[in-house]
Structure formats: C-alpha cells, structure tokens
Write a structure and sequence with these properties.
By secondary structure, the chain is α/β, with parallel strands linked by helices. The chain has 12 helices and 12 strands. The protein has 2 domains: 242 residues, Type I PLP-dependent aspartate aminotransferase-like (Major domain) (Aspartate Aminotransferase, domain 2); 124 residues, Aspartate Aminotransferase, domain 1 (Alpha-Beta Complex), CATH 3.90.1150. α9 packs parallel to α12. The model has no long low-confidence stretch (mean pLDDT 97). The protein binds pyridoxal-5'-phosphate. The site of pyridoxal-5'-phosphate has 15 residues, from α3 and α4.
Length: 376
C-alpha cells in the first residue's frame, strides 16, 4: 500500500508529469516569468469555467482577500463580518487594513456562516460580509445576498476551499461558488482543490468597476505604466504557476469527482456509527470536499488522532483555535464573544485524508482503523 497522506501531490503529479514538465520548460525557454501568456490564458480559462466576467490572478489567497477588501473603499473601523470557524487569513486581512473583524457563529451542520447570527451582527458600521465556503461546500448565498442587499453591504466570498462547487438558487439557477457575491477570492496553494506548485490566488467579479480597481491594486495602483492612481500592492501569479494551473484546470471536475468518490466511501463506512456525524450536504450546494471532516460525540477525538498517527494515517484538526480566541485579535474585545457552536465544533471535528489519489486499499485501511478505535 502506498503511504497515506492528507494530500498526495506526488502521485497526482506522476499522472500529469509529461504535460506539466513541458509547460514549465516552455516558460523558462520563453523567459516570460512575469505576466507571460500562460497567466492571461489561465485567467481567461478560469473565467469561462466559473462563468464570471473578470478573473484577476494574484500571488496567493490571502492577497486575494486583501485586494478585494482594498477595492471596496472601506474606512478604518468599518465592520467586516466573518465566521470565527475558518482559516485565519479571512479576518487577519481585515485587521491589517484597520477594519474591525466581527466574528459570528457557524451552522452546526454545514460549518458555514449561520445566517440568523449574521443578521443579528449587523450594525450601521457593517460594510462587508465574508462568507467562507468551508471544507468545499458553499454558504447559504441566496439568503446572504438578500441580507446584504437589504443593508447595502458588500459580500466577498472566500472561495479558497470550494473552487468548482455549484450553488443552487431556489428558482433552480445554478452558479459557481465565488461568483455570486460582489467579489470572490480563491487560493491556488498546492493542497487546494485547484493547486499550483507554489503560491497563487485570484479574485473574480462580474462588476467592471471593481475589476478595474482590483487589477490596478494588484499592480501598484497603476493603470498606465508609472502612473499610479491609488495605493496598491505587488501581487502577481507567476507565469510558471499559471502554466501548471493551465494543465490542472481542465482536470478540476475529474479531481472533484475523485474526491466525491472517496467521500462516498467514507460516508458509507461511517453511516449509522454512533458518535460519528459525516458531512452534511445542504440542498442548495454540492460538496467538492476540500476536506472530509467528521464531528465526533462521545469519542475521544485527540485519542483517535493519535491512534491513526500510530498506524501511519494522518488526520488533522481544522481548526483547533477559532478566530475569536486568537491572540492576534486581542484588541477587538474578544471576551464579548459567545460562540458555543464554534467552540463545540473546535473540540469535535477531525479531518481524514482527502485527495484525488486515494485508492480502495487505503480507504479501507483508514475506515477500518477509525472503526477499530471507535469500537475499542
Ligand atoms: C487557504 C485559505 C486562504 C489563504 O490562501 P493562501 O493562498 O494560503 O494565502 C484563505 N482562506 C481560506 C478559507 C483558506 O482555506
């Protein structure tokens, strides 16, 4: 049996090695390392895949969030609502820009922002909502967009974990996660569902003005070379990364299907097991399983993590400390927060290996080992 990893990028590379190597060597031969043709080709191809008007590539998913927030004319102290149960980048960027992160609860089943909690958190200072499509399932975007419209608030979808995910509106319309809010952001970090071989990211929007502004912000605020209209940053997707992503984008749906197949195997093995809750998939979204995350009740989570490790099976706790308990936000009055669902999940979630290369033998070994521990 091949060693089990959380993400097996080596095996995945072996399947696409010939194409990737050729594309990367072409970049080196062209010496167009910055803003080469593959960058433009990739932005156009991703735009077609997502059915969104503008894709602006940048250096990573954290920059993507920053570029998006910089484009929205927010003032210091403006409030940015985001779930507490997410990767730190979402709210870190808000604090960096002198905005005030406001942490809200997530739904216990979907792990995404709780829309009732969201409504209650809105104040006259709220200017932005950042739903995070956690683990690969879209947040309840129809409701979020209604709330945002009522209060005239921007929505930035943090789509780093859910690229390719489909959101279904109540009228049956289907749109890609990340293209429903005013702006969507994503990451091409190697382990993401569409990962490069280094850092990368992008923002997308259907709004021409926001697109123009974000394009400038990512490039030192310049429209015309050496004429700087606004303060920006330097955030680019490498041509080499774009060349890799151009090979991987056409495979994304196939990669998602492989993840869903592994998830089905897990779901089957764990259904009706007392104390294990398998991922819930809401009617309005499909799931692209960036992570496969169980909730354990009455099972020693850290003990299971340890037991699996001893058998050579990695498992991860995403995320052990929620935003509203992070030291970096100490100046934002964290003691005011009571987020019982977030705290509850933090104690009980465990993510199993999830990637495109899991085979039957590995999946059987993982599930058997989990059940061994549970039935001990
Ligand atoms: C990975 C991730 C990011 C940041 O992406 P980087 O490319 O690592 O900067 C932001 N938000 C979420 C939810 C993520 O999972």
């Amino acid at each position: 049996m091949r060693p089990i990893q959380m993400v097996d990028l080596k095996t995945q590379y072996q399947h696409i090695k010939a194409e990737v190597d050729k594309a990367v060597i072409e970049v080196m031969e062209s010496a167009a390392f910055i803003n080469g043709k593959p960058v433009h080709d990739f932005a156009a191809a991703l735009g077609r895949y997502l059915d969104v008007k503008h894709v602006i590539p940048c250096a990573n998913g954290t920059d993507a969030l920053q570029i998006a927030m910089m484009a929205l004319d927010l003032q210091p102290g403006d409030e940015v609502i985001a779930p507490s149960f997410t990767f730190i980048a979402t709210t870190e960027v808000a604090a960096l820009l002198k905005l005030k992160p406001v942490f809200v609860e997530v739904d216990a089943q979907t792990f995404c922002i709780d829309t009732d909690a969201l409504k209650k958190a809105i104040t006259p200072k709220t200017k932005l909502i950042v739903p995070v499509h956690l683990y690969g399932q879209a947040s309840n975007m129809e409701v979020i967009m209604q709330i945002a419209a009522e209060h005239n608030i921007y929505v930035l979808e943090d789509n780093a974990q859910a690229i390719g995910c489909d959101y279904r509106f109540s009228d049956g319309t289907v749109r890609k996660a990340g293209t429903i809010g005013h702006i969507g952001s994503t990451s091409f970090f190697p382990s993401k569902n569409l990962g490069g071989y280094g850092d990368g990211g992008a923002v997308f929007t259907n709004d021409d003005m926001l697109a123009d502004k974000m394009r400038k912000i990512a490039n030192h605020g310049q429209g015309k070379r050496y004429y700087h209209d606004l303060v920006g940053c330097n955030s680019r997707l490498d041509t080499i990364q774009a060349a890799v992503l151009n090979i991987k984008l056409p495979l994304l749906d196939q990669y998602i299907a492989a993840r869903q197949k592994a998830a089905d195997f897990y779901n089957n093995a764990f259904k009706n097991v007392k104390g294990i809750t398998t991922p819930y998939v809401a009617a309005y979204s499909n799931h692209v399983y960036h992570q496969y995350t169980l909730v354990l009740e009455g099972i020693d989570r850290d003990g299971l993590n340890q037991y699996l490790a001893e058998k050579g099976i990695p498992s991860m706790l995403y995320y052990p400390v929620p935003g509203h308990r992070q030291e970096m936000f100490a100046s934002f009055g964290l003691s005011q927060y009571e987020l019982p669902v977030t705290d509850w999940l933090t104690q009980r979630v465990i993510s199993l290996p999830m990637h495109t290369e899991l085979d039957q033998q590995q999946l059987e070994f993982i599930t058997t080992s989990v059940l061994e521990f549970v039935n001990k």
